[in-house]
Amino acid sequence: MDDLRTSREYASIGELLVTTARTRPSRPAAARVAVSDGYRVTAARVDTWLDGGQITSASVSFSRDNTAAPLSLMSSDFEVQGRAWPFLLSADKVRRLVASGYTMVITGPEIWDGTLRRSALEVTRAMAASLNTMVFLTPPGTSGFHRHRDRDDFVVVVQTEGSKRWRLYDAPPDGWTEDDDTRPAPAAQSAEVVLDVGDTLVIPRGWGHAASAETGGVSTHLSFGVNHVSPAHLLRTAIIGALRRMKESATLEDTEAAYRALVAEFREGAADDLVLEYVSAPFRTGDLRLGDL
Questions:
Q1: What is the three-state SS of 62-117?
Q2: Could you tell me whether strands 209-213 and 60-64 are parallel, antiparallel, or unpaired per DSSP bridges?
Q3: CA 64, CA 66: separation in Å to the nearest integer?
Q4: pLDDT tens readout for residues 21-57
């Protein structure tokens, strides 16, 4: 099997992400990285978020052996005017799910964690690429997901607590797209590596992989999805957003005028600056998030 470990040591997670975005590696590789306190996400820190009511059902999911937990197993029984609010989490239910072997997946912790948000803002501006941050908390000796491929240009894994065993398979087959859910074959395994705290693994788009926590304790890792954004994609996103916001009574002439105005504005602006504004928007307090564009 391939040896994924390199002698590279990154001084910070920011350096790791920026280097990945700029060099665009073509094969998986493992290295070491210094994890600052701001990025040191552990089960205890997740408990703090949970007890503070900062995590909602919109930003978390649970999976055990590739089977998702239903909303009823995590949502609070809290009622307002006689109606349940399912987006509120029950801390007790969440802990029972994890204790029973479910992996907890948190998306976008920058929404409530100011330290992570400030770091993400700095990193996205430096690498000129979008960033999707997730936290995976996996009970010892368990696996949340089966073999699969991710659509991000790069997935950058950083182990922050415990240990996790990663199995790498093959590169995406010719013609692979994000809509192809065909799983890598077991015989296609090409490498295996155990990540301890401070280890990192970079997985290029579509490369087959699977992971499971080691038996010694809970595993927590950060997963950063890094995606390059072209000026053309930015223009398409802006056009779609503008068309969606138009009134149903808008005429064909109104639609054509809105389209031409956007194209003219885009051509007059500096494309690189527009991309930087786009990728950093989710982490600037008070600005529109990407979904609002």
A1: EEECCEECCHHHCECCCEECCEECCCEECHHHHHHHHHCCCEEEEECHHHCCHHHH
A2: unpaired
A3: 5
A4: 999 999 999 999 999 999 999 999 999 999 998 998 8
CA-nearest of 8, 10, 5, 2 to 224 is 10
* pLDDT tens-place string over residues 212-226: 999 999 999 999 999
- Cα separation of 190 and 186, whole Å? 10
Nearest one of 196, 192, 191 to 216, comparing CA atoms: 196
The candidate with the shortest Cα–Cα distance to 206, out of 23, 28, 6, 16, is 28
**What is residue 175's DSSP assignment?**
T
Which 8-state DSSP code applies to residue 171? P
Encoded tokens for 110? 């920058």
Residue 147, CA atoms < 13 Å, CB-side half-sphere: 17
Tokens of 65: 């052996």
pLDDT in tens, 227-267: 999 888 888 888 898 889 999 999 999 999 988 988 888 88
Query: Which residue in the block uniquely carries the two structure tokens 């703090």?
Result: 48
Bridge partners, 75 (sequence order)? 89
Q: How far apart are CA 18 and CA 36, in angstroms?
A: 16
Give the pLDDT confidence of 148-206 residue by residue, as tens digits: 999 999 999 999 999 999 999 999 988 888 888 888 999 999 999 999 999 999 999 99
Q: Vertex 234, ends 229 and 236: CA angle to 5°?
A: 125
